[in-house]
Design brief:
Layout: E1 5-11, H1 15-22, E2 32-35, E3 41-50, H2 55-67, E4 72-83, H3 85-98, E5 105-108, H4 112-121, H5 123-126, E6 130-133, H6 136-143, E7 154-160, H7 167-178, H8 185-205, E8 215-221, E9 225-232, H9 254-261, E10 264-269, E11 275-282
Parallel strand pairs: 1-3, 3-4, 4-5, 5-6
Antiparallel strand pairs: 1-2, 7-8, 8-9, 9-11, 10-11
Helix pairs in contact: 7-8, 8-9
Length: 287
């Protein structure tokens, strides 16, 4: 399988320094864009501050990449030490730009300080296209979508006792089963958190009127992805988020977490009579 990534690098140093290294005049735009054959992901690396001095040029560069066929953006903030409201405005613009093409924006490697600004904004929780990842590598693994249907490697089922004290054991059991597939540690953590939220919802809302709760976890492994299904026999739920958008609300973030951490989240009617939540996470294939 071939892949294509656009690389848009922006180093926040003096314009004269960039121009001097590149051999161009003072007004040289400090962007360097290359690509390989294959996928539809744009990788943007920034160094320094992400503020109003940077955002206009960065937005113009991204606009051109999106017009040229890029459908997903990985924003590498691992070397960014400052972000202000201009950066948040860029994320809002990207969210609006990516939605019509069903694309995704993944923010990778954000420091504690920058992550705090993002958390305070509430964008990552509310915007459907925006997710977070520990590294660019794990972000690309999540965006690596195969166009060729692949054969199932194996399938496993786990019956879950409807008790909050059983959740930790189920999470660990599933992650241990997935470890041989070669997912990165950040990707495994994302899976664990999303699975935990789906299980918690099944226990909270999946208990039928007669109280005889039945919960089942199905794991399906493929060469390039894992599919987890959490089934219950409760009242049924279509996945519509009805919680508060208040950042400090005591609950209601489980669905947003699942959508931010997994590549695809789907809801269906469960054969058990309640809800089926399907979680999909992709990984990069060896080349």
């Amino acid at each position: 399988m071939t892949s294509q990534y656009w690389y848009l690098a922006f180093a926040r140093v003096g314009v004269s320094e960039i121009a001097g290294k590149a051999g161009f005049g003072k007004h040289m735009t400090p962007f360097d864009m290359t690509h390989e054959l294959g996928s539809r992901a744009c990788v943007v690396r920034l160094v320094g501050d992400l503020d109003m001095a940077v955002v206009p040029e960065l937005r113009a560069g991204l606009d051109g990449a999106l017009d040229a066929g890029c459908e997903n953006v990985v924003l590498d903030l691992s070397e960014v030490g400052y972000a202000d409201s201009s950066a948040l405005g860029l994320l809002v613009w990207l969210d609006h730009r990516l939605r019509p093409m069903s694309g995704r924006l993944v923010i990778a490697g954000a420091s504690g300080d920058v992550s705090r600004i993002l958390e305070l904004s509430g964008l990552v929780s509310v915007a459907a296209t925006i997710g977070m990842s520990g590294t660019v590598t794990s972000a690309l693994e999540g965006l690596e979508l195969s166009d060729i249907p692949s054969e199932e490697l194996w399938e496993r089922e786990i019956a879950v006792h409807a008790d909050v004290n059983s959740l930790a054991g189920v999470r660990e059991e599933v992650c241990e089963a997935l470890e041989p597939l070669g997912f990165s540690e950040p990707a495994l953590f994302d899976i664990k958190v999303a699975l935990g939220e789906a299980l918690a919802n099944a226990i909270r809302h999946g208990i039928p009127p007669d109280g005889a709760s039945e919960i089942l976890v199905k794991i399906r492994a493929y060469p390039e992805r894992i599919v987890l299904e959490v089934l219950d026999n409760g009242r049924g739920f279509d996945g519509t988020h009805t919680g508060s958008e208040d950042l400090y609300a005591p609950g209601g973030r489980g669905i947003m977490f699942m959508r931010a951490l997994m590549d695809r989240v789907e809801y269906d009617a469960s054969p058990l009579g309640g809800t089926l939540v399907r979680l999909t996470k992709h990984r990069a294939l060896s080349r």
